[in-house]
Amino acid sequence: MIKKTLDEKAFQLLKEKMEQGLFPQWVLTDPDIYELEIDKIFGHTWQFLAHETELKDSGSYVTRWMVNDPVLLVKNRKGEIKGYLNSCTHRGTQLCTADHGNKKNFTCPYHGWSYNLDGELIGIVAGNKVYGEEMDKSEWGLREIPQVASYQGMIFGCLDPAAMPLEEYLGDMKWYFDILLGRSDGGMEVRGLPQRWVAKANWKATAENFAADPYHVQTTHRSTVELGISPEDPLYAGYGHQIVTENGHGINVITSKTGKARVPYQGTPDSMWPMFKKNLTPEQDEILSGVTVFVGGVYPNLSFVSPIHGTEGHLHNYLNFRMWRPIGPEKVEVWCWFLIDKAAPEEYKEAAYRGYLGSFGPTGTLEQDDTETWARIVEVSKGLMMRDKELNYNNVSNYLMGFDRVEPDESFPGPGIAYPTTYLDAISRSMHENWFKLISKDLFVKEAVK
Ligand code: FES
Ligand SMILES: [Fe+2]
Fold this sequence. Notes:
Blueprint: H1 8-19, E1 23-24, H2 31-40, E2 47-51, E3 60-66, E4 69-75, E5 81-85, E6 100-102, E7 105-107, E8 114-116, E9 121-123, H3 127-131, E10 147-151, E11 154-158, H4 166-170, H5 173-182, E12 188-190, E13 195-200, H6 203-212, H7 217-220, H8 222-226, E14 240-244, E15 250-254, H9 273-279, H10 282-290, E16 293-298, E17 302-306, E18 308-309, E19 316-317, E20 319-326, E21 331-341, H11 346-359, H12 365-380, E22 390-391, E23 417-419, H13 426-439
Antiparallel strand pairs: 1-22, 2-11, 3-4, 3-6, 4-5, 7-8, 8-9, 10-11, 12-21, 13-21, 14-15, 14-23, 15-16, 16-17, 17-20, 18-19, 20-21
Bound molecules: FE2/S2 (inorganic) cluster (FES) and fe (ii) ion.
């Protein structure tokens, strides 16, 4: 039996299971594992912070979290995006308490120290009297987030100054982001504010649900079939390709049964199609013109979905980014962004936004379905019996439900390892392998005998 506390013996047992492709259920909610994840995964990987259209002008700012690290993301006068710890260097209180806004400088609500957009300490209340001449303000500026970088307007941060650059980390996923975010002139824009709410869930389960699991759609979201929105065919979310890329990232390109487009270019106005063709390579255009839903993830905690939504004659498409911020082994704070092509007609944008609110987001019907399942996973994973039970990732050896072995499809036009179905555990397996690689780095490594 695997002991629940993560001593070296428990770790070795976990290692054995992982090497067999088995994922023990207790790790979903284990507090020791959770602490390891915060340090070894979230302390070293790139995490999504914001989209550049949330920071339009000099002085625009948003406040965000990288798990427990508070982030103040600011556009300075030079137009650069800077990331600081949102904590005053005097006594440490949270410096900026608003979610977003525009400021010339930031004044601490505790004793009134103020900082400019470059994080420099520029004002101390009664400074000369209290601190005299010896206080060197230049030593007490805001502390910077070690790495902040963006790709296609998506801004990410990383707490490890030695971590690989963002573009290298994203790897082949960039090619798919070019389709999702770079297809339109002017790119995408965030509409409204990111919505956020707390769900009873473990971040691994929520990330996997989006990035790797179209198989749940036909059961969890059965109501969409009953309403006539989705087809009766239980394989309907399985047509297309599941693509595994580097570092635990992956994307599902879901199509109709025939592989042909249900509606071209996801129901976007036909006036936009020549622009897509102009901005994409022929291979990217081939994928975009025929896809029904893109859904995937950037490891560890960013997911995205780009569906066709609505009924015939009123179809639209949008892009939903969501970040799963762990706030305990059994809780996530969900951050949810709506993005739409800047170049789309205004009435189309508005219709797409209303469609998004009715499907994903805290009041969306699809969201409720998933949230209930995530809560039930954590509720049942803490028991004594779970200590030596593993979850079914048999499909990880690429056998699809007892049918023929699924081999990668070499003819798929995009990069990564593309399997010709999305009812597959290939991305899940890659996420869990990456999870184990990261949490076990330097763990229980014996010092070399001198
Ligand atoms: S804690 Fe910010 S000024 Fe004192
Ligand atoms: Fe779902």
